[in-house]
Amino acid sequence: MVSYAEFGAAVDKAKLGIGPAELHGSLTGYLCAARSVRANGLLSALQLESDDAGVPDPLHALLDEMVPEICAALRAGGAVLPLLLPAAPLAARADGMVDWCRGFLGGLGLAGAGTHGMLDPEARDLLHDFGEIAATHLECGDDDAVLVELLDFIRSGVARLHAALVSRAGK
């Protein structure tokens, strides 16, 4: 599994204007919407471009590792879905989770999954909940139980959204 630090270094070097947690969330959101593209096409699909054409190559190599892992986790129901967050104090991990959710919603939107009229009420509620998380600043104190509970909710919510979007795509 690619580490947050390794991915963060490649993202920083690519100068995409997005942080590693948010980019990982965007990738997951895009892939959750049953979109499949080659890893080197994901940055374009997410409308992210580097100022230096040669810089994203290390990032593409990491994406080549991450995309199959994310797709496998989505197919498995999301319980093992990796959320790439910093190995840092609780406040930084909570901020990373908020960024991840923001990216996830953006990735879903770019994949065309945000058409509320076509989603069932549960999926619409989940999108609303993800939006609430993405718009918040989580105060966790010293107890990471709140963060762990939210991460579990996010994983199960992503799995339910993926199931709803895949079944909708099959119709």
Report what the structure shows.
The chain is mainly α. It has one domain (4-169): Four Helix Bundle (Hemerythrin (Met), subunit A). The protein has seven helices and no strands. Helix 2 (20-32) packs across helix 4 (56-75) and helix 5 (90-110) crosses helix 6 (121-134).
Helix-residue proportion: 55-70%
Number of separate domains: 1
How can the largest sheet be summarized? none
CATH superfamily: YgfB uncharacterised protein family PF03695
Instruction: Report the CATH topology name.
Output: Four Helix Bundle (Hemerythrin (Met), subunit A)
Low-pLDDT runs: none
Q: Tell me the name of the CATH class.
A: Mainly Alpha
Query: Per DSSP, what share of the residues sits in E-state strands of 2 or more residues?
Result: under 5%
Q: Using only CA atoms, what is the Rg?
A: 15 Å
Protein structure class = mainly alpha
From the coordinates shown, what is the CATH architecture? Answer: Up-down Bundle
Overall strand count = 0
Quick structural gist:
This protein has helices at residues 4-14, 20-32, 39-45, 56-75, 90-110, 121-134, 145-169.
